[in-house]
């Protein structure tokens, strides 16, 4: 069984497009005031964690990088980006309002959106490719790390680590303004 280093995983704070129910994927939208408060809440959570020796990695997408800057400003002096932490590609549905997409009304719209929409987006990345990207990323980690990423990518990383796999994406939990701590293949939600 694969072992993984200790990780703290954060999703970016709420963006204008999150509030509107838009698919973002590779596109970007600014953090809302609520999103900046969520990043501050993550900073408060992380202030009680000893991050000495931890690598700090963030998605290069603006919403994640801004969240990382706010959430980690009290403890680190620099952020390193890794493109493998970017959000799942949603192809032709990037920028579209979720509830207006074909078949959207058939799916449960949870804290990270209806997961099936991310799998079925025309020209999108899909879960198999995202799982491969995240598996390769996790295999490259050599030390405990803080990862700042996105809703679906966070779910996939945590599903791989806990052994839940793609089938466990829906049940792994999500949300903004929180931190997930993963150690010894176990996940703990910090609020």
Characterization of this structure:
This protein has 191 residues and is α/β, with parallel strands linked by helices. The chain has one domain: 3-Layer(aba) Sandwich (Rossmann fold), CATH 3.40.50. Helix content is 34%, strand content 14%. It has a 6-stranded mixed β-sheet, with helices on both faces. Helix 3 links the parallel strand 2 and strand 3. Helix 2 crosses helix 3 and helix 5 crosses helix 6. The longest helix has 15 residues. The model has no long low-confidence stretch (mean pLDDT 94).
Characteristics of this structure?
191 residues; alpha/beta; Rossmann fold; six-stranded mixed β-sheet; globular
Give the arrangement of secondary structure elements.
Layout lengths: L6 E5 L4 H5 L12 H15 L7 E4 L3 H11 L7 E2 L33 H6 L5 H15 L4 E5 L1 H12 L16 E5 L2 E5 L1
Parallel strand pairs: 1-4, 2-3, 2-4
Antiparallel strand pairs: 1-5, 5-6
Helix pairs in contact: 2-3, 5-6
Per DSSP, the total helix count is: 6
By DSSP, the count of extended strands is 6
Mean pLDDT: 94
CATH superfamily: Phosphoglycerate mutase-like
Share of helix, binned: 25-40%
Strand composition percent: 5-15%
Give, in order, the helices and strands. EHHEHEHHEHEE
Strands of the biggest beta sheet: in what spatial order?
3-2-4-1-5-6
Query: CA-to-CA gap between the ends?
Result: 29 Å
Class based on secondary structure composition and strand pairing: alpha/beta
What value does the Rg take, in angstroms?
A: 15 Å
Uncertain segments: none
Instruction: Assign the CATH architecture.
Output: 3-Layer(aba) Sandwich
CATH class: Alpha Beta
Please tell me what the overall shape is: globular
Using the coordinates shown, work out and report the CATH topology. Answer: Rossmann fold
GO molecular function: phosphatase activity
Organism: Sulfitobacter guttiformis
Binding site for substrate: 11-18, 63
InterPro entries: His_Pase_superF_clade-1 (IPR013078), His_PPase_superfam (IPR029033), PG/BPGM_mutase_AS (IPR001345), PGM_Phosphatase (IPR050275)
């Amino acid at each position: 069984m694969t072992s993984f280093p200790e990780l703290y995983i954060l999703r970016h704070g709420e963006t204008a497009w999150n509030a509107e129910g838009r698919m973002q994927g590779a596109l970007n939208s600014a953090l809302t005031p609520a999103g900046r408060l969520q990043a501050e809440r993550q900073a408060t959570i992380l202030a009680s964690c000893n991050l000495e020796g931890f690598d700090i990695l963030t998605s290069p997408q603006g919403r994640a990088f801004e969240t990382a800057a706010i959430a980690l400003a009290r403890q680190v002096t620099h952020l390193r980006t890794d493109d493998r932490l970017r959000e799942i590609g949603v192809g032709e549905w990037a920028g579209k309002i979720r509830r207006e997409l074909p078949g959207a009304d058939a799916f449960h719209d949870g804290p990270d959106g209806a997961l099936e929409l991310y799998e079925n987006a025309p020209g999108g990345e899909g879960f198999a490719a995202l799982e491969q990207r995240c598996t390769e990323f996790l295999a490259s980690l050599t030390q405990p790390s803080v990862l700042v990423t996105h809703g679906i990518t966070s779910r996939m990383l945590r599903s791989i680590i806990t052994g839940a796999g793609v089938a466990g994406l829906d049940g792994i939990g999500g949300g903004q303004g929180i931190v997930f701590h993963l150690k010894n293949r176990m996940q703990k939600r910090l609020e």
